[in-house]
Amino acid sequence: MSDFDWSDLDARLLQLLVAVVEAGSITGAAQSLGVTQSAVSHQLDKLRAITGDALFVKSGRGIVATARAAGLAVQARELLRQLQGFAQSGAFDPARWKGTVTIAANDFQREVLLPTLAQRLREQAPGLALRIIPSDVPSLEMLRDGVCDLAISPRPPEGSDIVQKRLFEDRYVVYFDASVRTAPTTVQDYLAADHITVVYEPRRTLHLDRTLEARGLHRRFAVMVPGFGALPAFLRGSPLLATAPSLLARRFMAGFGSCEVPVPCPPLPMYLIWHRRHQDDAAHRWLRELLASNSPPTA
Asked: Quick one: which of 189, 184, 166, 187 has its CA closest to 174?
């Protein structure tokens, strides 16, 4: 009774069978597979024991496949094709991606990162729709419950199932209407002025202000708005100061005067955030890499 059964079959034996059938010789099969002739002969003996057939017989100076081997080679090619498809099932072609991807981001991140991403998606994944929702201060539930596929924020939520990647780091500058006032040059000038600030959640100040308050410094707020996009309308024609990311000078704050903040400010890092269940997904990984590759350089 044979020591082998069908469960001893593997892809290498199937490849060996096809190679010998196609080459018509042990030598040719060994060359195509990159192994020795003795290794081919040994594996053929194993395959003969499994199938219970001679598989190949001598014919002149070469060998020919038996009728059984020729039939098995047809099946082997199909099995190898299926195995290859199984192994490559995670392969991803963005041009064939159809659906909607949801990214949670506030107006600063939307302004700096997402228009370029949208353009790249139209070029490389035209079947994909980009949906953008406000992130406010991202919560664990937003990512865990699938409300969004990615979040972009300077404040990643803490959770063992949440993954983050630092995209870039910006810095704060002071914006002002140069037709109304001059730049604050001292700490006293800066703190004596009326300020406009962004408040995403009630009673939650920016990290900037918590840092200043820890040093005993307090800004006086005359206007509080829900996003950076509202700053220009209130700043224009007023003596207000707006302390905001430097990258906003590209569009939102274009045309306003700006200067360095005359008090120490924390950096403004930006993170890409996702749930761990997406970590190894090929489409999600491609999207993350595309977004990261179009991030601005650190200021």
From this structure: 184
Q: Largest alpha-carbon pair distance within the chain? A: 102
Confidence of residue 2 (pLDDT cuts 50, 70, 90): very low
Q: Can you give the pLDDT at residue 149?
A: 94
Short-list 285, 274, 272, 271, CA closest to 161? 274
Angle between helices 37-51 and 11-23 (to 10 degrees): 110
- Cβ distance 56 to 65 under 8 Å? yes
Give Rg (Cα) of the chain: 32
Query: Helix, strand, coil % (nearest 5) of the chain?
Result: 40, 25, 35
pLDDT in tens, 202-245: 767 778 888 888 899 999 999 999 889 899 999 999 999 999 99
Residue type, 168: F
Helix (H, G, I), strand (E, B) or coil at 134: coil
3-class DSSP state of 221:
strand
CA distance 270 to 111: 13
List Cα–Cα distances, 279 to 23, 41, 114, 165, 289, in angstroms. 43, 44, 21, 12, 12
Q: Taking the CB of residue 172, how many other CB atoms lie within 10 A of it?
A: 20
194-198: strand order across its sheet: 220-225, 194-198, 241-245, 172-176, 257-260
205's tokens? 């100040």
Higher pLDDT, 142 or 178: 178
Residue where the block lists tokens 């995209």:
167
Q: Please name every residue paired with 225 in a beta bridge, in sequence order, or none if there are none.
A: 198
